[in-house]
Amino acid sequence: MEKIYTRPSYIREGATSGFCPGCMHSTVHKLVGEVLDELGIVNKTVTVWGVGCCILGAGYTTHDSFGSPHGRACAVASAYKRTNPDEIVYTYQGDGDLASIGIAETIYAANRGENFTVIFINNSTYGMTGGQMAPTTLVGQKATTAPFGRDPKQHGYPVHVCELLATLKAPYYLERVTCLDAPNVLKAKKAIKKAFQNQIDGKGFSLVEIMSNCPTNWGMAPLETLEFMKENTLKEFPLGVYRDKDAE
Predict the structure, then answer these.
(1) Among 122, 75, 74, which Cα is nearest to 94's?
(2) What does the pLDDT average to over 6-22?
(3) Of 59-73, 92-106, 132-146, 234-248, which range is least confident?
(4) Confidence tier at 141 by pLDDT (50, 70, 90)
(5) By C-alpha distance, which of 113, 224, 103, 118 is closest to 176?
(6) Which of 61, 93, 134, 239 could be 97's S-S partner, Cβ–Cβ 3.0 to 4.6 Å?
(7) Above pLDDT 90, what percent of the chain?
């Protein structure tokens, strides 16, 4: 029988996902694994995990990785990449980690054009710590710290990371994608692969923002979250390429 698919070597044999049912983290990890295999770089890749649900990935991936203090993944990755320039380095972070406590580290790594890759999972909530309002929570969307919904007069507006970083000169590649259906999964993989190829080619800072869901903290069934994303999330956070110096 012809084999048409196999487990990416990035995924530990026998590993089971620690993510909630319906969460897109699992899909993104599979895509990253497929990309690393296709590029032949698994054995020279190092992950810097952000704090939150992201760190669960350390339990079932095979390559080298380490955690970082909350929000500091881009700072840690900058130091590691500079001292190990021949290795492939990427951060894997959520919106609470990257866009809140880590916004300064993210901006300045991007502004320096650090040659590593950022995989940014944006599910509009603090997933692991209890569903608190995140920088990317939608206006009107409820959270444990905003039980009546996000109010711009009190909480400000959602932070748009790709648009924010696109105002800087140094970032090489910025794209926002999602994994809510099969066509978008293929587009997400293409974006992830491009971001890693940019690093291999020494082009500088690449970030792929992946719009995701959080069935547990949104209080919805997984299929309901997909409809919510189509009707609400993706209108606030439009998909697309926000910087690609290859196309300029």
Answers:
(1) 122
(2) 81
(3) 59-73
(4) very high
(5) 118
(6) 93
(7) 79
Residue ranges of domains in the chain, CATH in brackets: 25-128+160-247 (3.40.50.970)
Closest CA to 111 of 49, 68, 175, 166: 166
Residue type, 193: K
Q: Which amino acid is at 48?
A: V
From CA 148, how far away is CA 234, in angstroms rounded? Answer: 22
91 three-class SS: strand
Half-sphere exposure at residue 53, Cβ-oriented, CA atoms within 13 angstroms: 30
Q: Give per-residue pLDDT as tens, 145-154.
A: 999 999 999 9
- Residues of 95-120 as b/e, b for ≥16 C-beta within 10 angstroms? bbbbbbbbbebbbebbebebbbbbbb
DSSP category for residue 20? P
**Nearest CA among 130, 150, 131 for reference residue 140:** 150
Nearest to 213 by CA among 128, 123, 95: 123
- Reported pTM: 0.95
Strand order across the beta sheet in which 240-244 lies = 64-67, 45-49, 88-94, 117-122, 206-211, 173-178, 240-244
How large is the average pLDDT for residues 80-100? 96
C-alpha angle 26-208-228 in degrees, rounded to nearest 5: 60
DSSP state string for 216-247: HHHTS-HHHHHHHIIIIIHHHS--EEEEEGGG
